[in-house]
Amino acid sequence: MSMFSIFNVSGSAISAQSQRLNVVASNLANVDAVAGPDGQAYKARQVLFQTTPMGSDAAAGVRVRSIEESQVPGRRVFDPSHPSADGEGYVNHSNVNAVEEMVNMISASRSYQNNVEVMNTAKTLLLKTLQMGQ
C-alpha cells in the first residue's frame, strides 16, 4: 500500500460525506412540506455507502451505492381548511424526522472533518519524511 493511497481513500470518503450532507439538507428543507400536485408528499432520502476494499480493481475507499427513499408513512394532520386537504380533511405531510436528520447531519459533518484531518496528517508525515532525507 502506497502512502498516497491514503489520499484516495480519504478523498472518496469526503466526496461521499459531501453527498450525504446534500441529501440531509434536502430532507431538512422539506420537513414541513405537504403533498404536491401529484398528491404525494416528499419522502425522506437516505444515502447508502459501499466500500471498495484494497487490492480490488477499483480504487480503495468508499462510494455512494444509492440514494433511497424512506418507506415510512408520512404524517397525516387533520386540517379541513387547508387547500391540500383530501376528501376526509387530512393533509399529508412529508415523512422527514427533523431530529434524525440533525443527528445524521452531525455524523456526516464529523466524518467529513475526520477525513480532512487524516489527509492533513498524511501530508505532514510525508513532508517530515522528505525533510529527513535532506
Automatic annotation (TrEMBL):
One GO cellular component term of this record is: bacterial-type flagellum basal body, rod
Q: Which part of the chain is the Flagellar basal-body/hook protein C-terminal domain?
A: 89-132
Coiled-coil residues: none
Q: Which InterPro entries match?
A: Flag_bb_rod_N, Flg_bb/hook_C_dom, FlgC
Broad class of where this protein is predominantly found: other
What residues does the Flagellar basal body rod protein N-terminal domain cover?
7-36
Q: Specify the domain of life of the species encoding this protein.
A: Bacteria
Q: Which biological process, per GO, is one annotated for this protein?
A: bacterial-type flagellum-dependent swarming motility
Which Pfam families does the UniProt record give? Flg_bb_rod, Flg_bbr_C
Which cellular compartments is it found in?
Bacterial flagellum basal body
Q: Which UniProt keywords apply?
A: Bacterial flagellum, Cell projection, Cilium, Flagellum
The record's note on quaternary structure and interaction partners says:
The basal body constitutes a major portion of the flagellar organelle and consists of four rings (L,P,S, and M) mounted on a central rod. The rod consists of about 26 subunits of FlgG in the distal portion, and FlgB, FlgC and FlgF are thought to build up the proximal portion of the rod with about 6 subunits each.
Q: Which family does it belong to?
A: Belongs to the flagella basal body rod proteins family.
**What's the protein name?**
Flagellar basal-body rod protein FlgC
The organism of origin for this protein: Paenacidovorax caeni
